[in-house]
Amino acid sequence: MKTILEILNDKMEAAFTEAGYDKKYGLVRISNRQDLCEFQCSGAMPAAKEYKTAPIKIAGKIVEILSEDKDFSEVSAVMPGFINLRVDSGMLAGLVCQMRREDKFGLNSPDRVMTIIVDYGGANVAKALHVGHLRPAIIGESIKRISRFMGHKVIGDVHLGDWGLQIGLIITELRRRQPELPYFIEGYSGEFPAEPPFTISDLEELYPFASARSKEDEDYKKEAQEATAELQSGNPAYKAIWQHIVNVSVADLKSNYNKLNVEFDLWKKESDAEPYIPDMVKYLKENGYAVVSDGALVVDISEDGDKKELPPCLIVKSNGATLYATTDLATIVERMKLFHPDLMIYITDKRQELHFTQVFRTARKSKLIHEDTECLFIGHGTMNGKDGKPFKTRDGGLLRLETLIEQINGEVYRKMKIRDFTEEEGKRIAEQVGLAAIKYGDLSNQPAKDYVFDLERFASFEGNTGPYLLYTVVRIKSLLNKYRASGGVPDGEMALQPPQDKSEREIYLMLLRFTEVIETAFTEKAPNRICVFMYELADAFNRFYHDHSILGERDEKKKISYLGLIQIIKDVLETCLDLLGLEVPGKM
Fold first, then answer.
1. Looking at per-residue confidence, does 2 or 493 come out higher?
2. Cβ atoms 479, 569 nearer than 8 A
3. How far apart are CA 124 and CA 136, in angstroms?
4. What DSSP state is assigned to residue 312?
């Protein structure tokens, strides 16, 4: 289905051509002065330079041609040469009716279906999720959903950190605390226990303790490094402990990600890339992409046009150890082999930009990816407290994600009018509304921007917030349910009439922006574009709601048209909420 802008562009280009001018000047845009006109073309100004004619004269010719078109209710030429447009109400109603009938509200299928991998988890095993994990998880989930809605094949990968020093630290501390475990008995040849010797709570205490001690005790740190090396060399006892750590951690991580309504198609780990490293390193050396520098293996990533000198990508350290860049490159090798992606999107803290520049340039220079394979880094900003500094607990530590969720659920529950709910219902609704408060509060900002987490404002049921949007949908559902209960016509028979007033017309125009908004959000990888659209649509509905007695309208055809209109508003808002990973409660 063509968007309204595409239709208007076609008409304007045809008018320029008929008037004897190049159609390239017939570009129509949404007016930023809606009080003057809805759409505008300024092509007469640049055309005037080419055709040596006054722009107002060119605009006048175009207006004369378009004035015959019944799809316009108003066409005018304004000095110095603007062409102002207002479309006919019948055209608006016709397009919204078509939009209602179309799959995905008229969103066109892509010319080329891409395979896209979204890497957006990045949590480490044996560690609790904290507020720093919030942004990549919910931004990535939304980008995955938007890309999939566009019609692409999308694979979401959590990509867990499970192969570094943190495992060696846990093994070292576990050995000191429980040396009697079979993993640490020299010469043990039996089966290792199927049940782990620790819980997730144990791991969350073990790792910070071991990490802190390694910073003060050099011998302890060396012991942990040796344990890490043994694990990576295939020590069966240490691999059994590692597997326990992974299993316990993944179960806990799935539970916490589920609370965010975040799902991954793949639960891949750093260790999954390990088998690809030897051949990849050999390939880089033998083909001259990697060279030895001060005993280390590096790849020069500099390119013509660089404004500053970039350090080379370090592949193998002088002591033979591999790094994050090594496993990230090996992961790319694995993904190319298994999935042949057209696009790989990585969502992490923006402070990792240099790292991914090094990795992507190395992958492209060494032909680890195809020429037409794109790698995209989306660096997100930080979630800050009201003091403008990264969000922390009162004692300066990182706030656990589940604690943040509990806090905002409690704030929402306090603000809700719970007298109509049982306590169980109220808490369940508070969880859905609380999640909307957290996720919308984040996603309504540009991904790269830092933002202030304001618990009270985000949990508000008024203004540009998640709870406000959910309440708007619940209000519409309530109206529709009351109408159905009274024996009204089925949803599909709610015929739309041309808009009769300003607030109704505003909604028609806004609905027709839907496909353009989704396409822009996908192109820019910007869920905040959808947030802006949703808030404006919800606000437009609420103005309409206050201006009209929908169920009390005496003109039956008009009432049915109102109900058909709010039905599509609800459907569009629910679709947008789903693209953000949000669900609407049955009542609020």
1. 2
2. no
3. 13
4. P
Quote the tokens at residue 144: 């995955």
Q: Is 373 helix (H, G, I), strand (E, B) or coil?
A: coil
∠ CA 32-573-39, nearest 5°, is 20
Note the pLDDT tens digit of each residue in 495-519: 899 999 999 999 999 999 999 999 9
In one letter, which amino acid is 279? D
- Residue range 176-201, pLDDT digits in tens: 999 999 999 998 989 999 999 999 99
The reported pLDDT for the residue numbered 435 is: 95
Residue 136, preceding peptide bond in cis (omega within 30° of 0): no
Contact 150, 521 (CB under 8 A): no
- Residue 13 φ/ψ, nearest 5 degrees: -65, -40
Q: CA-to-CA distance for 220 and 179, rounded, in angstroms?
A: 16
Would you give the DSSP letter of residue 160? B
Q: Give residue 272's Cα distance to chain centre.
A: 25
The counts of H helices and E strands in the chain are 20, 13
Distance CA 559, CA 495 (A): 10
- What's the topology of domain 4-87? Gyrase A; domain 2 (3.30.1360)
pLDDT in tens, 289-310: 999 999 999 999 999 999 999 9
User: pLDDT by residue (tens digit) across 342-385?
Assistant: 999 999 999 999 999 999 999 999 999 999 999 999 999 999 98
Q: How far apart are CA 235 and CA 256, in angstroms?
A: 31
Closest CA to 310 of 298, 320, 292, 295: 298
Angle at 22 between CA 16 and CA 23, to 5 degrees: 55
Task: Write out the residue limits of the CATH 3.30.1360.70 domain(s) in the chain.
Answer: 4-87
Query: What band does 321 get if pLDDT is binned at 50, 70 and 90?
Result: confident
CB 522 within 8 A of CB 150: yes
Q: How many CB atoms lie within 10 A of CB 327?
A: 23
How far is Cα 356 from Cα 334, in angstroms, rounded to an integer? Answer: 17
Q: Dig out the tokens for 529 from the structure.
A: 């574009």
Q: Which residues of 234-244 are buried (b: 16+ CB within 10 A; e: fewer)?
A: ebebbbbbbeb
For 498, the token pair is 């041309």
Inter-residue long-range contacts of 306-310, CB under 8 Å, 24+ positions, other chains counted? 310/354, 310/357, 310/358
- For residue 122, pLDDT over 80 is answered with yes
Averaged pLDDT, 164-182: 95
Q: For residue 80, what are the CA distances in angstroms to 34, 38, 56, 474? A: 19, 18, 6, 48
> Which residues are within 8 A (CB) of 540 and not within 5 positions of it... i.e. 6 or more apart?
503, 506, 507, 510
Q: How would residue 558 be classed by pLDDT, with cut points 50, 70 and 90?
A: very high
Alpha carbons 482 and 478: distance in angstroms, whole number: 6
